[in-house]
Amino acid sequence: xxxxxxxxxxxxxxxxxxxxxxxxxxxxxxxxxxxxxxxxxxxxxxxxxxxxxxxx
Length: 56
Fold this sequence. Notes:
45% helix; two-stranded antiparallel ribbon; single chain; alpha+beta
C-alpha cells in the first residue's frame, strides 16, 4: 500500500490518501491538488517533493 499526506510536504492541509499502486495514488493526489489547491498541473519541484513523501 502506498500513502501520501499533504502535511508531509509542508502544506497546511489535512488531505491523506492511500492506494495499492503508485499510479492510483498519483491520480488521487492529482484530483486533490486540482480541486483543493487550484493546481491544474504539478510542477517538477512539487512532484519531486510528492515522490519523496510517498510511503510504501
